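Hi V.,

You were right to ask for the full record rather than a summary. Here it is.
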Amino acid sequence: MAYLFLLSLGLYLSIRYPPRHSTQATLGIKASLLTGWRYVWQRPILIETIALGGLLNVMYAAFKLVLPYDVQHIYGGQSARYSYLLIAMAVGGILGGLWLTLAKRLPRHQQNYGDLGLLAGMLILAGAFPNYWMLLGSSVVIGFCYTCFDIRALTITQELTDPAYLGRMFGLLFLAMDAFQPLGSFIFGFVTDELGNATLLLVGSCFLIGLVGIYQGYQRLARRSR
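Predicted structure:
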């Protein structure tokens, strides 16, 4: 996992964008927060990215909870099998990073729905068919899709945000992508005890519903901002 972190860091540092200079005067903390919130709420794509990041990490936390449960209760409690699942996610993440690096195309926010829809589909398949090879393959795809969204979200945020607001915008994005994971762990920790592997079916279904809701919300905000 340490190597994956270093690779991700290298990919983030390789992202380039044209520098833009801001003449905005220095603001106090209160004024800075207020202007930051106003800036975000006037840009539907940034709101959409934050909402998708929060939803993804709640569901991703639930997925990571089910893995050790499945290994312990369905696949004989072999620690090696759990390690293989973690390796599969890491490999998927590396492939996702390489895919975006080699594609050399400007990211579009619509691509997020394709990646996250595929991720939700793999969760549903893994929940509907409790087979270790299905779970292993799903882990690769989920790692791939997670990394694609992660890198694309950072790139979109960097491209669409004025440098004067970039720190505040990244703070909101990281809050959505990291702070909601404990919520997913807390909620689905109880659910996993009751549903077992079928929790993945529930997680995938909730994920799809959330994606539809966020897309519809984005469309309404985009119409109002025109």
